[in-house]
Amino acid sequence: MTAPLFDLVLTGATVLTADPSNPLVEDAVIGVQAGRITHLEPRDPSVPPLRAGRTIALDGNVVTPGFVNIHTHANLSMVRGVAEDLGFAPAYTPGIPQGHMLDAEEAYAISRLGALEALMFGSTLINDTFVHADAVTPGMAEIGLRVFSCGRIHDVDFSGVSLGRWEHVDAIGERRLEEALALAERYQGRSNNRIGVQLAAHAPDTCSTPFLRRIARAAEQHGLRVTTHLSQSKVEVARIRERDGMSPPELLDEVGLLTDTLLAAHCIHVSDSDIARIGRAGINIAHIPKGNATGGTIAPTSRLRAAGARLTLGTDNMHADMVEVMRWALAVGRIQEGAVTEDWQPASVFEMATIAGARAMGLEDEIGSLRIGKCADLVAFDFRRPHLTPNTNPLGNLVHVAHGRDVALVMVDGEILVEDGNPTRVDAEAIRRDADRAIKAVWARARAA
């Protein structure tokens, strides 16, 4: 009998699968057919090599599932190196470029830079929200990674928020929600499930209470998940306390959004009762450890997890290196505990970056771990480098020492999108140049405002 012919075979790598039943495969042979993993075993010298259209030797590499970057704003690469030192989220900060300042062409160019950066650092899925989603969604998806996208949904007039003015306008909300539902109708599940939509309710303070109820009904009616910012700032907490007489988590519970399908970013400024409420609901928390710590804040991740919340990881508007984010999440967790504990080990944050993120997206049966039958979404890190030698503990090296710049190969659905550290579908320099031109134009307008 003729041996099966694989589309692609990868040999020689150490594989960190994120599958608890088989977490580590050394000197592995991975076979890919029709975009899925159909063989994953240690190499057996007595068995002839698998027949394949192409075989890639990855000796000295460590292979992981593609990272699920659960919360990004690709367009906010336009304020990198500046927003980090202002102490607050860009949308609330005067004097810098704001989302409402971007036109569709600029948003398209800048978002592609953010998506490419994420891909080249090992993210195979990004869940992105900002502006002009009708333009940026296909633009980012053309790079090849999985893109969940939605324009930020709000009924506040954002031009006043950075000045401390919250003016809610029904027409704004209806327009934003209609745009999001139209985006979902057009793109949800397209490109072999590489494109999707979650309804991006921006935040409790930028959505009026009636509008939050409207979003909850729309999500239920259309079978869509909701992503939001929650308890991200003292300003938000004070605003909701003044407006609604309750905390942001209490408000989301009241309007029907605090459920196990909600993905809520940050959850920093939460009380004991908020933590208990969040835990009972079993929401998915997009933990942003580096971005939060840069702003001088820490989410109480140990207590949230103990209460029942499910932790995932995202880069937000920071540098899109999920390895670095894992490292920050581990450090922040241990700082809260005041010790190295069993609950905060490299495996804990690796799970958050992979299968936990897939679960939050409703995709745990397809991605997030490497096992036979799942999509061939994977990343190879070249460990043949001084800072990754010796490789005594591959997972420990990955979390404590590696960087996104160590990524050599990225694959989605068995398609190689990054090889030898370079993208295969697009011209990286052209994307960088177009984005740089757009960002300079936006900065010029912001400074003149």
Automatic annotation (TrEMBL):
<dbReference type="InterPro" id="IPR032466">
    <property type="entry name" value="Metal_Hydrolase"/>
</dbReference>
<dbReference type="Pfam" id="PF01979">
    <property type="entry name" value="Amidohydro_1"/>
</dbReference>
<keyword id="KW-0378">Hydrolase</keyword>
<dbReference type="InterPro" id="IPR050287">
    <property type="entry name" value="MTA/SAH_deaminase"/>
</dbReference>
<dbReference type="InterPro" id="IPR006680">
    <property type="entry name" value="Amidohydro-rel"/>
</dbReference>
<feature type="domain" description="Amidohydrolase-related">
    <location>
        <begin position="62"/>
        <end position="416"/>
    </location>
</feature>
<dbReference type="InterPro" id="IPR011059">
    <property type="entry name" value="Metal-dep_hydrolase_composite"/>
</dbReference>
<protein>
    <submittedName>
        <fullName>Amidohydrolase family protein</fullName>
    </submittedName>
</protein>
<comment type="similarity">
    <text>Belongs to the metallo-dependent hydrolases superfamily. ATZ/TRZ family.</text>
</comment>
